[in-house]
Amino acid sequence: MPIRIGVIDYLNVQPLYYRIQERLASQDVEYIYGVPTTLNRMLVEGDLDLAPISAIETARHARDLVAIPNLGIATLGAVKTVLLFSWFPDPTELDGMRIALTEQSATSVALLKVLCRDYYGVKPRYVVKPQNLEDMLRDSAAALLIGDDALVEGTLRRPIGVRGVPYVFDLGDEWLKWTGLPFVFALWTARRDRLEDIRKAGVVEALYESKAEGMLHLDAIAQAYAPQLNLEPGVCLKYLRDLRYDLTAEDMAGLLEFLRRALPDFDPASLELWAPGWETPVPMVEAAAPIGDHHALR
C-alpha cells in the first residue's frame, strides 16, 4: 500500500515540498491535492497517511493522529493569508452581524470565533460560503479568507462592489496583540496506525530535507509562484520569509493556549508529537517547555 501524502497547493507550503518527489522517487508514494478542509477530512477518515492539516483538527482527533515536530506553519504577528475583510472599521461593531466564513479552513474559522467571543466581545451570525470575496461581502458585514486568495486581496486592496475598499484585519496580528503569543495555523500530521510504514519509507526525513533546502531557495520559489497570483515576486518572498516553519516551544505554547480556548474539553496531554527514532510519541505540552536531548526537536 503506498504512503499517501496530502498536498496543499498554496504558496505558504511550497518550501516544505521542495524537491520532495525526487527525494522519495524510490518509494511507493502517492500525492493527493486538496484545500485544508479536504485534507483534514481525508486524513481523519484514513484516505491519507500524512498531510499538513488544520492544527485544530489534529487536536480534535488526537486519538488517531500525531503531529510531526518542526513541520508546520506559524507566525508571530501578521500572517497575510488569514484575513477578515469588513465593512466596519472596528471588529467590536460586528455584534449580531453576519460574517461569511471560508469553506477551506478549520483553524482560521475557529480562531476568528475565539477572537470574536473572548477578545472583541461580540456574537456575530456565521455562514459558510465558497471563498470569493465579492460574493461573500455582497450580503455579509465581513468575510474571512485564507490562503492565496487572501494574500492577493490583502495586497491589492481593491474596491468591492459599490461600497469601496473594505477594512482588513490580519488574524495572526490580532492574536499577537491579544495574547503576545505566536499562532500555529497548520501541523504536519500523520495517522498513528501508519507510523511504522511512514518510518520505513523515510518520508519524515525527506520532508525535513525538503524544508531545509526550500528555506535556502525562497527567492526561486517566490519567482516561480508569483505569476500564478499576478503578484510581484517581492511580495511573495516577504510573505514566505515572515512565516515560521521550525516550530519552537513558544509556538507550541501559543497553539496550546488557542486549543484551550477553542476546545473546552481539550486535554493538552492528548496532543502528541512523533518523529522517526523516538521510542514513543511525546505530549506537546512537554515539548512546549525544555525537554531532554533524546526527544530534542529537529
Low-confidence stretches: 290-298
What's the story with the biggest beta sheet? 5 strands, mixed
Inertia-based shape: globular
Alpha-carbon distance between the two ends:
28 Å
Name given to the CATH homologous superfamily of the largest domain: Periplasmic binding protein-like II
CATH classification, class level of the largest domain? Alpha Beta
Number of helices: 13
**Measured on Cα atoms, how large is the radius of gyration?**
19 Å
Mean pLDDT: 94
The second-level CATH architecture of the largest domain is 3-Layer(aba) Sandwich
Number of domains: 2
Query: Based on helices, strands and strand pairing, what is the structural class?
Result: alpha/beta
In the CATH hierarchy, the third-tier topology of the largest domain is known as: D-Maltodextrin-Binding Protein, domain 2
> H/E element string?
EHEHEHEEEHEHEHEHEHHHHHEEH
Keywords:
alpha/beta, D-Maltodextrin-Binding Protein, domain 2, 13 helices, single chain, 2 domains, 298 residues, 12 strands, 3-stranded antiparallel sheet
What does this structure look like?
- The protein is an alpha/beta fold and 298 residues long.
- It has 2 domains: 3-74 and 184-295, Periplasmic binding protein-like II (D-Maltodextrin-Binding Protein, domain 2, 3-Layer(aba) Sandwich); 82-179, Periplasmic binding protein-like II (D-Maltodextrin-Binding Protein, domain 2).
- Helix content is 40%, strand content 21%.
- It contains 13 helices and 12 strands.
- The strands form 4 sheets. It has a 5-stranded mixed sheet. Strands 3-10-4 form a 3-stranded antiparallel sheet.
- Helix 4 links the parallel strand 6 and strand 7 (125-129).
- Helix 4 packs across helix 7 and helix 10 (218-229) crosses helix 11 (233-242).
- It is globular.
